[in-house]
């Protein structure tokens, strides 16, 4: 039997409305395995006298995280909070959140990922590069090296390796040369300096595959000037060039090789052990600043080598199977390895005084250092394919004066280890060394108070279905659609969910109200039916160039739009014998190409796909946001040919997201600089970003059909990430990767408003309608949820932010149980609004409920936000409530929800009795009532997980799509298991 969620009917707890819940676990979404992880490098320090005076000592911020998957997609993650907030406090429970996806060609995979700096000489040593300062390269087992356009999410260019399949690649510490290990046994060096990509050298050939590669520590430049004349730009750059002398590679012939970069010859060969005559595969190598080489092989052995003598220093049989990856800690004193046996092992560099020497007696003590195997942790259920650490390791000798000239902005923050593998889950773990003072270190993940790898808790990030959910729903058609890789599946929800009895409502209400208490997650009081009635209607495998980037179905279930990075496909779904038969509308792409060619800024003749798609609620219009050019194309679907075929017609192309500077009527909109948006006003004052944006200017509707463009810097590159429609079909809103949100009027097909730029990315947005009463007018609200847990409420008709919801935009004003959630907001569910929700024919009302004006006046303020492991009911116009995690209890241990005054009992106090979310009263009874009331807002339910999609099918009927991790793991091949003696 479906479980009800409680919906508040006003700003004070009143008779609760139960939501009948469809728990859909039949959606067979299977995430793709993680095969590569990369963090951006930091620029090497500059030591010349003229550059040291102009170093830009930027503040602390977390770098971009790239995750490559086996289906060819690359996910880009950014830190959840703004740069200003990161400098103030690095503690962020949400950590890295998905910001965009690069959709891979079909078929393809990602085996290697490398970030390089686009212009490394423009960055200081302590400056973390932004996304626009980076280049991203990938290889997928073929001979093509791919460079990605990080703005549009498409392939920028490709280069053939000229040596067969690319098995590995690595960039030098200066980000000027990229080394490729190829199938033919050669290492090829590519020039990537100054945004170039070209072959420059190939090293000598060996008779084996090059499986792994790493650069030796660079040699610092001399600080003395080469001549007494005034230095020019070219001479300055030469003085700051670091020199690469050698690289090390691991092969398929049981050997490591050290190569001279200048001559291309093999300097030395290091042989590893063999098992039963079989060749040992050197899957991974790394190099420390002192030249120590670390290798992991197919025997599960981790070895340390001296690069000068090329002899073995240590050998640790730490793993039961192949070691596939390793990562070096930012201090160079820790090495992490993992592989097929699912264990992540830590090796630590320790210094010991031996030989019994006594310093006090004047005898000279001998200092001996060595590597030890410290600990191992099992954080994955299957093979681990990739490891990466932030901040990254720079192989610069610690005794050089170069290191002492710059302050490390991450000295007080624990490093973070990211790992991934076949179980498709990205795992983050603090990995500070035990030698650090734990009282001085901050755990940025907020998983525990400690930050050492041995003792700290790790956290598993939810596997995403896409930047926008790959699951969409048709309310009137009662259809559920899933898009995955190159296929689309459609199900029909057969019947409405059964409403529980009054007793069942009370029992589950008590469980849901006890946030963090004894009954919040037991779920044993009610026997639930796990899945709702459904039938599979349609499965389509599409011929696409890349994986599917966007999918949408109309509300009546008659239209289906699917897009990859280069083409949008529109299907008309015809009813035949109780099933759906798709019919392709082939004229859509010609309409899109013609629309983009007529753009005012720059005509676009090449076809392109969509980043987001959406149908108007009346299913008469399709809105396409183009993937590369960030245009919004509005298409009318009501026209038909004499043969009764659909005839898509262009209504308008909105180019507003592609602008940095434009004139709207008599108002000039100029681009906001990155530093101004992130750090406060132009004077550098650290004013609160949210407060500044709430009071910013809002763009009004322009007079003409198109804006007037400024001649300079008129176009910018961005990606439209989210789209939402109002329930009446009058408005739709979009937001882009530059944190800009715009509202458009579909009735007049005009631009309506531009919201001030938000300091954090928008994770979801939705419209909520407020009904008209005798004391208030009808209004449409736009609700925006940000990655930093803040919420913005904007009144569309009034063109202003709702003053009664201003406190929701301040992170410090929100409940701690809300801001401490580890999973960020994935979506917003708004109950469909009806003019008279209290008619006698509605089966979704509580049996004791009667019509009330208070419910009607605030119905539009109640929303459900959801993440991967939680659902949260929020009353936007109510106080945020108590900020803790659990309710107060009586001394006898009885929870206040077990008293006669339960949350389902109507409360007769007026909203004026609330003071900062607390009800006035002096007695103990009033204290308990106060506790009930303050917990009624931001109530979190964690019984449903992991959630892929949450939305309403109808009034009072909630649909939750879950994909338990156990179901995903059952579809994977068996994990490695090595029995122990005696077990």
Automatic annotation (TrEMBL):
<feature type="region of interest" description="Disordered">
    <location>
        <begin position="674"/>
        <end position="714"/>
    </location>
</feature>
<dbReference type="GO" id="GO:0034455">
    <property type="term" value="C:t-UTP complex"/>
</dbReference>
<dbReference type="InterPro" id="IPR015943">
    <property type="entry name" value="WD40/YVTN_repeat-like_dom_sf"/>
</dbReference>
<dbReference type="GO" id="GO:0032040">
    <property type="term" value="C:small-subunit processome"/>
</dbReference>
<feature type="region of interest" description="Disordered">
    <location>
        <begin position="887"/>
        <end position="932"/>
    </location>
</feature>
<dbReference type="InterPro" id="IPR011047">
    <property type="entry name" value="Quinoprotein_ADH-like_sf"/>
</dbReference>
<feature type="repeat" description="WD">
    <location>
        <begin position="247"/>
        <end position="269"/>
    </location>
</feature>
<protein>
    <submittedName>
        <fullName>WD40 domain containing protein</fullName>
    </submittedName>
</protein>
<feature type="compositionally biased region" description="Polar residues">
    <location>
        <begin position="893"/>
        <end position="915"/>
    </location>
</feature>
<keyword id="KW-0853">WD repeat</keyword>
<feature type="compositionally biased region" description="Acidic residues">
    <location>
        <begin position="232"/>
        <end position="241"/>
    </location>
</feature>
<dbReference type="GO" id="GO:0003723">
    <property type="term" value="F:RNA binding"/>
</dbReference>
<dbReference type="GO" id="GO:0030686">
    <property type="term" value="C:90S preribosome"/>
</dbReference>
<feature type="region of interest" description="Disordered">
    <location>
        <begin position="221"/>
        <end position="241"/>
    </location>
</feature>
<dbReference type="InterPro" id="IPR001680">
    <property type="entry name" value="WD40_rpt"/>
</dbReference>
<dbReference type="InterPro" id="IPR046351">
    <property type="entry name" value="UTP4"/>
</dbReference>
<dbReference type="Pfam" id="PF00400">
    <property type="entry name" value="WD40"/>
</dbReference>
<dbReference type="GO" id="GO:0000462">
    <property type="term" value="P:maturation of SSU-rRNA from tricistronic rRNA transcript (SSU-rRNA, 5.8S rRNA, LSU-rRNA)"/>
</dbReference>
